[in-house]
Amino acid sequence: DDGRNEGGSRDNNPEVPRFFPRSQYSMPGVVCHRKPSPFLPPTRAIEAQMNALQSNDWPEEGSGIKAAFQFSWPSNAEEVLPGEVNLSLRKSWMSDSYVGEETFFDHLFHLPYSFLLHCENWEVCEDLCFTDREGLEAEQTVKVRSAKGKEALPQAEGHHYFKFRMKQISSGSFRGFWMTDEVSYEDYRD
Question: What is the mean pLDDT of the chain?
Fold first, then answer.
C-alpha cells in the first residue's frame, strides 16, 4: 500500500502529514526567502520581507531585519560587476540616504517601522501596481496588526499600513532583482 486513497490521491490519508497549508496565503512566520533573487517577483519579495520581519528573531536574533536589509536597494546596484560585490550600503526606508546595516537596524527599531517586528499578522490590502511604463517600478500596500505586547502604546491601536515601493535592477550583475526602494507609513484609518 503506497498510502493513496481510492481516487489515487494521498489527500485523505491521515498517515501522510500535511506540511503546507491549502490556502493561498502564507502561514504567519514562514520564511522561505531571506535574500533577493532574480526569480522572485515583487509580490514575493514583499512577502519574504514581511514574513522575515514577523519572525525577526528566528533563526537568530535580528535575522528578519538582516533579510530586509538584503532586499533594500544597494547603493551601486546597477554598476556592480560579477566578483565586485560590495553591498555594505543600502537605501534607508526612512530617507533617500544609503546606510550601513547597523543604522538600518536602528531605523527599524523605531516607530513606525517597529510595528513590523514580530507583528501579530499582516496581509496585502492592495494589488500590486506598476508605476512606470517599463514595468520596472511597482508598489503594494500591506496592513499590519502589531504584536500584542505593543498594544499598550496609544499609537499601536488598530492596524498600520505600509506601502512598499519596489524597483527592478535593470543592469549589472543583479539585473532582474526586485529590491525595496522605499517603505512608507500610510495614515489610513480603520
Answer: 81
